[in-house]
Amino acid sequence: MQGLRSAAWFGASGRPGMVYRSWMRNQGFTTEVFDGRPVIGIATTWSELAPCNAHLHRLAESVKRGVWQAGGFPLEFPAMALGETLLRPTAMLYRNLLAMEAEELMRANPLDGLVLLSGCDKTTPGLLMAAASVDLPAIMVTGGPMLNGKYRGQDVGSGTHVWKFEEEVLAGRMTADECAVAEGCMARSNGHCMTMGTASTMASMAEALGMQLPGSATWPAVDARRYETAQRAGQRITEMVGEDLRPSQIMTREAFENAIRVNAAIGGSTNAVIHLTAMAGRLGVPLSLPDFDDLGRPVPTLVDLMPSGRFLMEDFCYAGGLPVVMRELGDLLHTGARTVTGRTAGENVAGAECFNREVIRPLTDPLMPAGTGTAVLRGSLAPDGAVIKQSAASPRLLTHSGPALVFDAPEDYYAVMGDPDLPVTPETVLVIRYCGPRGYPGMPEVSNVPLPRKLLDAGVTDMVRVCDGRMSGTAYGTVVLHVAPEAAVGGPLALVQTGDIITLDVPNRVLDVEVGEAELASRRDGWKPPEPHAGRGWVRLYTEHVLQADRGADLDFLVGGSGHEVPRDSH
Ligand code: FES
Question: Which of 16, 160, 358, 569 is the most buried (most CB within 10 A)?
Fold first, then answer.
């Protein structure tokens, strides 16, 4: 194979070549690995601290088999593992750090092609952002969802049922002991959340973008066919190096448009808006917030999965998975888009068959009509935009005006949410602010705060909440998210006061605060930015450079790519 970049290392003569080869041989490799075959880096986000990714080291072995089989030389290396459940204050604070770390490792090492092993929410976009900036041939293998949770004979969805059980306990319908039993029934195998949360959404986005082999998003983590798929990915990346098939040729504007439409059809997470925007930024693909609304609007929801629906990823897999959805969307997609298979998106899914029409509905009989997906709002409260997941909201609240009850931190709200005298009615709009990229920092998934006890006791099940943070893809409720500019940079959200009337008009895509310009200007004069979170380290770098939600919350200096040329060779 001509012109492999790894040849500059392992094919070098003299002292440098000896150093490159000799130290690698301490792992017992025979000298054939230096014969000019493609070197495939397997970037793994495995860690026992990232439980959703805890099996990726085994999946890597399957990838290696495939690479060896196809005549490549596989080398596994760790990239920052971000576990959604354990990392504080939020894994999102570190997505860009993973992307930056992985990008540098991919560029600095003698690699010709990349396999990206991800699973938990941020690991998929983080690795794709890195691969996009380096632009070496790359294929993604996500770790797959957990098996369906089961509690007392019923399906239990990761994340989604955490919220449900919490509400049940708060409302006195479930005891603490019952909740403890349910806790052990939820995560019963390796894998990521098996609802259509952010991990399942981003795995589906990777497949819709053409960066995963067809069907990869849905095989359960413990299914032998996931391991088979991983082996095939190892074979395929080795071929892709010969074809010089790179992310920039796959993740085009057309591919992003496909992903946005697929996201609407699967009822995917609002987090996809932020991650796809950041990924597009790395590739120089123009993508703005209104694109998500415009492209998603003609697409009905086809997949009946929690949190919007009834089923779970295992059911989605057995029904035929994402290829069925993509075939169903037909001309709503750019079927000619290139993919990692070397075939087009349309060719990949031409033979897809549906085996359960309750789980994947036909376009002619959708679960929810077109126009009920993620809506992008603008208005005096969100000049640069905000989003709401309509399918997770209560239809009666999509047009609503009510007085604001304002909290400067979710913790402030949690401290009083049980107060029977909290000045709150079903019409109240809860405002939780300073939760944006710079504000918290890291834009955590805190926006869907539980309802106050006073309303729960009165039988109220939903209310409008407005926040500059994010919401877990497994969550539900009438929650306006990603308000930009965020409060911490002086967006209008920072100026809202308790009692101000907030108007949400989703059909007309409006989010307004009913306060006059002059009054807002005078409040702005009295507003002071919050103190910086940190004087040093990553948090300082992050808060000084993070972009707003409508630009994907990437760091300003990481937008774009610098390719795979090594700036300087010291040898
Ligand atoms: Fe890892 Fe949900 S916590 S995917």
Answer: 160
